[in-house]
Amino acid sequence: MKIRTADLSDFPRIFELIKEFSDFQKTPEKVKITLEEMVENASFIQALALENDSGEIVGFASYFPSYHSWTGKAIYVDDLYIQPDYRQGGWGKSMLQLIIEKAKSDNCSKVRWLVSSWNMPAINFYKALGAQLEEVDIVCDLNLD
């Protein structure tokens, strides 16, 4: 297994995994992007790819720089998904650790992400990493389409 920076040639596979992740989340209708849009917006996409021993991408983590008025610079992890057969091997932790190291080298104050309230394995995983889970905020999306 290997973690590396994703590039444009990885987008078709990552797009498949995005759709697979939305199925896992039980929200496939929320995937509005297309592969063509991903390619068109490639300069905005920062991601890690997790490859198995055959070179197939079996997981990804997408993230971007953000700024929070109360705490300053941060990195926001948009998605982290690993196919079920490759979980429990420490790869999610390794991908997050690489993002955390990037945040530290960029002098960020934190790394932030969301987790579904029903996803107890992920919640327990994040707590074990030392993440503080806040139950105060509600996600607000204003779709512009």
From TrEMBL:
Keywords: Acyltransferase, Transferase
EC number: 2.3.-.-
GO molecular function: acyltransferase activity
InterPro entries: AcTrfase_GNAT_prd, Acyl_CoA_acyltransferase, Diverse_Substrate_AcTransf, GNAT_dom
Keyword Metal-binding: no
Gene3D superfamilies on file: 3.40.630.30
Pfam families (alphabetical): Acetyltransf_1
Domain N-acetyltransferase positions: 1-145
Protein name (record): GNAT family N-acetyltransferase
